[in-house]
Input
Amino acid sequence: MDCIFCKIVNGDFNTKFVYENDYVAVFKDINPKAPIHLLVVPKKHVESLNELDDKNLMGELLSAVRETTKKLGIKSYKTLINTGKEAGQEVFHLHLHILANA
Ligand code: 5GP
Ligand code: ZN
Output
């Protein structure tokens, strides 16, 4: 499967992860829309939130948001999930945006 986020979480591009565990990797967005713009990405390929039926993974994604922001000392931030092309989803491997001012 030709999925850019699968390749990134598999380490194919040596992307630096700001946080990682068995389920999730977090890295910087290549085209940041805020001073801090991170992507929280499940290691398992799931196309979008519509295909996410694993409640454990749902919890892991939000838990990774908390672990990442805690680690980086980010206290105030927005989270965003685009689901479907019409809503602005460009990469069809589920990801959660973290957006913050420095
Ligand atoms: P979406 O619009 O699907 O919710 O968000 C996709 C995000 O992935 C965009 O903010 C875009 O800048 C980011 N992105 C796309 N390709 C890459 C990539 O190869 N590396 C990284 N780090 N981010 C990417
Ligand atoms: Zn993928």
In short: The chain has one domain: 4-100. DSSP finds two helices and five strands in the chain. The longest strand covers residues 36-42.
